[in-house]
């Protein structure tokens, strides 16, 4: 009858080989000690992997805004080009970009026409009809407010200045835009208040605060820079912000300020 073998027994040759490799024959789960060459190889692989990952992420960070810019620009060109491209296709002109150039010329001519007395009258009549529409008038008013803020004419409905006010608590500040000024008549004297629009959802939704003119910080930022800060969520915020003096305000806006306020 064959002799039963003990499953836990280790052959002599295998035990000797494990002793030479540094393992305990009685503990088969014990791992062998790591050699210096293996540790060096693992460290080199880790450093190389970390370096490749870092450079790859750097490339993504650099190329992402470039790709978005090209994508938006290409989409805008195709979108604007699509207004007049079908007209040129009917005439037999299949030139890419011709509709885009025509659209730019058309926008320029509209600006010239609206700047005239006749164009302003036609525009006023069309705006009067739009403001009588139930739902469209709200969209038009919000869009006009945004376009007026960056208008080079700086008319009465445009944002006047970028403002920083203390809100909502002491020690906290909020970005906003001065839209108008109002004189509050009180028994102890008149008080000048500024209407400050503080956006709460990008640029078209926000709160209006009446703040004393002396409590408003007017930074050295243009309206376009203020809009960029709001739309970007503060990512384009400059590292240093300095308030402008009343004399600089006069030079920038041509605002008439009493001599008592300049002193």
TrEMBL record:
Give a GO cellular-component term.
Golgi apparatus
Residues covered by region (Disordered): 1-40
Please give the superkingdom of this protein's source: Eukaryota
- State the protein's name: Protein LIKE COV 2
List where the protein spans the membrane. Answer: 56-77, 97-125
Q: Does the keyword ATP-binding apply?
A: no
Keyword Transmembrane assigned:
yes
A UniProt-annotated Pfam family: DUF502
Q: Which UniProt keywords apply?
A: Membrane, Transmembrane, Transmembrane helix
């Amino acid at each position: 009858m064959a002799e039963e073998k003990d499953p836990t027994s280790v052959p002599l040759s295998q035990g000797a080989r494990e002793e030479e490799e540094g393992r305990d024959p009685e503990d088969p789960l014990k791992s062998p000690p790591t050699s210096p060459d293996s540790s060096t190889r693992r460290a080199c692989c880790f450093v190389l992997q970390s370096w490749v990952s870092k450079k790859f992420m750097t490339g993504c960070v650099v190329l992402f805004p470039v790709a978005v810019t090209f994508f938006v620009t290409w989409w805008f060109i195709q979108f604007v080009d699509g207004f007049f491209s079908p007209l040129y296709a009917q005439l037999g002109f299949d030139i890419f970009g011709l509709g885009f150039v025509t659209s730019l010329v058309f926008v320029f001519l509209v600006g010239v026409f609206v700047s005239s007395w006749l164009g302003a009258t036609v525009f006023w009549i069309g705006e009067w009809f739009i403001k009588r529409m139930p739902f469209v008038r709200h969209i038009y008013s919000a869009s006009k407010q945004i376009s007026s803020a960056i208008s080079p004419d700086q008319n009465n409905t445009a944002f006047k200045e970028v403002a920083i006010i203390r809100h909502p608590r002491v020690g906290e500040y909020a970005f906003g835009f001065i839209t108008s000024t109002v004189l509050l008549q009180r028994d102890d004297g008149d008080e000048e208040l500024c209407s400050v629009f503080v956006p709460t959802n990008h640029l078209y939704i926000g709160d209006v605060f009446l703040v004393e003119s002396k409590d408003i910080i007017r930074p050295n930022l243009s309206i376009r820079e203020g809009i960029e800060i709001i739309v970007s969520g503060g990512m384009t915020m400059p590292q240093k912000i300095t308030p402008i003096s009343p004399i600089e305000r006069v030079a920038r806006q041509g605002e008439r300020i009493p001599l008592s306020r300049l002193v």
